[in-house]
Amino acid sequence: MKVAVVGLGYWGPNLLRNFLAQQDVEQLIACDTREDRLKVMKQKFPSVILSNDCEKTLTGNSDLVVIATPVATHYPIAKKALLNGKHIWVEKPFTANVAEAEELIEIAESKNLNIFVDHTFIYNGAVIKMKELVDKGELGNILYFDSERINLGLFQRDVNVIWDLAPHDLSIMQYILGFKAKAISANGIANFNGKENIAHISIYFEDNCFAHFHVNWLSPVKIRRMIVGGSKKMLVYDDMENFEKIKVYDSGIEIKTTEGIHEALVQYRIGDMFSPKVNQTEALALGARECLDAIKENRQPLTNGYDGLEIVKLLEASDKSLKGMGRIVEIEELVHF
Amino acid sequence: MKVAVVGLGYWGPNLLRNFLAQQDVEQLIACDTREDRLKVMKQKFPSVILSNDCEKTLTGNSDLVVIATPVATHYPIAKKALLNGKHIWVEKPFTANVAEAEELIEIAESKNLNIFVDHTFIYNGAVIKMKELVDKGELGNILYFDSERINLGLFQRDVNVIWDLAPHDLSIMQYILGFKAKAISANGIANFNGKENIAHISIYFEDNCFAHFHVNWLSPVKIRRMIVGGSKKMLVYDDMENFEKIKVYDSGIEIKTTEGIHEALVQYRIGDMFSPKVNQTEALALGARECLDAIKENRQPLTNGYDGLEIVKLLEASDKSLKGMGRIVEIEELVHF
Amino acid sequence: MKVAVVGLGYWGPNLLRNFLAQQDVEQLIACDTREDRLKVMKQKFPSVILSNDCEKTLTGNSDLVVIATPVATHYPIAKKALLNGKHIWVEKPFTANVAEAEELIEIAESKNLNIFVDHTFIYNGAVIKMKELVDKGELGNILYFDSERINLGLFQRDVNVIWDLAPHDLSIMQYILGFKAKAISANGIANFNGKENIAHISIYFEDNCFAHFHVNWLSPVKIRRMIVGGSKKMLVYDDMENFEKIKVYDSGIEIKTTEGIHEALVQYRIGDMFSPKVNQTEALALGARECLDAIKENRQPLTNGYDGLEIVKLLEASDKSLKGMGRIVEIEELVHF
Amino acid sequence: MKVAVVGLGYWGPNLLRNFLAQQDVEQLIACDTREDRLKVMKQKFPSVILSNDCEKTLTGNSDLVVIATPVATHYPIAKKALLNGKHIWVEKPFTANVAEAEELIEIAESKNLNIFVDHTFIYNGAVIKMKELVDKGELGNILYFDSERINLGLFQRDVNVIWDLAPHDLSIMQYILGFKAKAISANGIANFNGKENIAHISIYFEDNCFAHFHVNWLSPVKIRRMIVGGSKKMLVYDDMENFEKIKVYDSGIEIKTTEGIHEALVQYRIGDMFSPKVNQTEALALGARECLDAIKENRQPLTNGYDGLEIVKLLEASDKSLKGMGRIVEIEELVHF
User: I need a labelling partner for D188 at 20 to 30 A (CA). Which of B159, D31, D241, D323 fits?
Assistant: First the structure.
């Protein structure tokens, strides 16, 4: 396999390092127009081939093009790579809007090429454990999903805090719960430069489930925490914990009545807590493996264009709702597929 | 001073205990129609006069009637007490709607009687410290206020989780920021009995400030935390901490540009942290003292009917917005005063 | 049952409250020579009979005398109570030295009276859970027991920090591990008034087990934590945690060799963690119940004179070792029984 | 400057990386007899010169030899390097006994060569901040120093847990308090292979100060915490905290009496807490810089042979005391200088 990584900013070096470690990668090109970035890569990864010519990289002999450039450029670069017969890996969020995502999926399908969208957290040991627990029914029916990702973060110039941080959490939610978001209400504020730096997203589902996402670039404390409430048990995923990232609480409520739910006496129950061991393998290593394996086996990867599209739908809907100060936006409004 | 406490449920005993401890309370009546509650009070507070006759208590010789009954009954009981010339203390939330609150305020004013609304947290040492820090400009301009109050709580039959928990946090916000909420967007879900058990409230202000409140009766972990983001410093109030409840972070962002805010390079800055000592006196003791002092000095108490009314406005607006799945509701829509 | 509580200082009110709550206590006397303490008790517990005459109380009609006076006075008061045919409850530590403890046990046995020593933590839900887990072999063989109890505490005038705090932890250790301490080494310092305010106690056992106790009156942070290391699993009891007081770690080491232990490759293993629900009943309520039941059933209580004696042996040995700056002291040196 | 690193085990790669980053290092040799380790280094640091010939490396053209081999081999390698006119950097602990350390210091002095002992924590931002606070008198007189370093660690075959972990904490203590340890008492247990895996060290000083060190390879939880108690304030250094590593508590005790200390009423006082920002620069980078600068400036480095010797004295004394189950060992007994 020949791989080319385009875009050597914050995330690019991690991609290079992980593709370098894959046995079946025989050629690795690193491409950026910024000479200083190429110089840094040369020092870190002397065996990698450097290029400052994006055009040439996209039309060269690579099998897979890995795109780690700003969001707005995903679509043109990805399109060119696909049209040149390359499989693509695209950083999150997949594209800047739904239409772009749909077009890329169509092109890839017509040419039998793979799109891998880097929803990295889907390959994280703690998230895999969450999925496993939910799938085998440990929590019962999922009643709600609550996520918080706040810290003092570098403000992005091109996107707001939702496009920057929420794709992580939205992709985890979709992995755990499936594609069933129905409508979105988003609120937030732009304290400085016109891009929201604090935002809250509420998602309504078809069944009686609810999700909420809190993202903030301006918090003095760093919190990365999810709560999944189930009818049987409840789970907390705290990514800031060094060791006990997942905790499953045998706690909940019990409805004691025969007279119908409205008259119910709802009581709470506190039980044992269990914190399962979580696989510590670097998520990006597992992602790179999955991407390469899917190409070889001529199948869709676990995080493919459709997954990327679903997240972009939620992001686009959030922007609409933000402008309406929380106005409810149906996901279906956005679908043209 | 002669005081009568009506309603001896969960909170009633705390009220009795604190009024008993005031030197100038010469007579204390405890009233409830439930004989078992009266029996428990007799054991705990043998010196208190018991009564199962609410009518008589409200028309008796008390100077102050303390109302700790379910929200729906606040209005009729408070009205009768006022009309009989009693000052009143009402548990939060003040009333079940804006119209009731406005009527009670009018009656009290026409008869020169005091209304004390029990926004207990305003008398809490940590909240007093927050107010002090904000007032002397330690944080700079307030950019946002973020509150979370979640745990495994007893479901209320008569009100949803917003009416149950949010008055605490909304009253703290108003104490710190003043009355300037402009519009509300609320989202949530009722998983069981028709009353929302999880809710998120966003509040927009006239200036570029934003507040958010997360309340949840169905969380496996107990979180009671506020973050106040300022242009100079940021503050975290964690009520679950035993010792360091307030932390002030000399952290924030800096805008480095002369080319206007949209092109700004926003950078973050991390500095020292400071955790001031907080007064440990029981809030309810200070509240009882303030209530009695205000009556004696013929002045409005710190938490009076107008404060209660403001919170009821926010609650009523939240209900409207909840029904509209986040629809923005202007606070002014509700004001008939 | 007729009960008399002698000594109404810090702990006395808790004893009164808990004996008051026992159905079979028909008479409760509270005795102290300090009039101000009697006055406070009168307000809190109006149904209790007050007395300032200790002599009379010890010779009166009570079945059980509860002794909550300073350590140095335990022996004379307990002796007089026993000689007057009363069962006794004695606060920890049982006596000021081994000889006193032995004599009281002899008197009680000769007169068929019960001695209950208030090792309160033995009735604590978390400790009961620890005992249960160890007894059913969950942890395997116990390799070590490590305890820390430090905070900013009121300095005692009459005893050092070991006599004040360590009885809690030593009694828990003995409850969990049995009576098998063989030798003690203690170190510490008296920064102020001649009584050690920081101390470390190491205990060696007959089998290859080791225990350590850290007590400190001068710590800026409050820590109350025990670690029990087993050959199969390890347990942490953190009393400062509100909810997850006991955590059992399926972690440990594995010895991979057939060439004998000295050449062994010792590797570590990290697995799941489990936090069992713990009974929240107040320990003192269970202690009072056990004390009364044991008398009625004419049997030794769970925490009796022999338990008290064992702890006093360890305390006396600690003092000897402290003077020798860690000199090892055999427990057997102290036994005259 | 030409530098050779001998020993490419766990710590060697960190040394290579940090010396590579120094501008004035013109040649860097990495030496180990294990071919697999050389191969790994080749991949990570392609610009480094590899060697499997230790003899040649020690007699070659390097100015500085960095020794990162097992403790028992420090002395022969260091001696040969010094005799060949090289400055040396030696990992902690400096040598396997006092005599070796003294001989190396003598050789280095006679040849005007530098010994740098890698007490890395002395270059750690949090430790530097502690030193600064103590030196400017923020804490008042130091009353005690309490250290805990426990986790589930890889058992060493060649040394016990004291020699493995305690040098970190002992060197911090000496940096903060100066060289004034007078006597040591150590206790512990070897549960498995004859080397102690849990140990407690108490140190007595000439003035009324006391230090204690707890090290443990078999703890299910990872704790790295120091408490420094002062007459004015107290400090906690928690290395497991991500952000607030140093906390200074304006808490302590007050002695209220004129009748002499033995009758004193010692009361406690709780005040504000302050957590200063700590420099995040990698300690090893600062250490490498100091080592090279000291050579260039022909002066002793901050952590030199004498510092190394002091720690080895404490370690050797600990071993003696361990064998005597806590027997007090005077540091002077060991000095032959």
Answer: D241
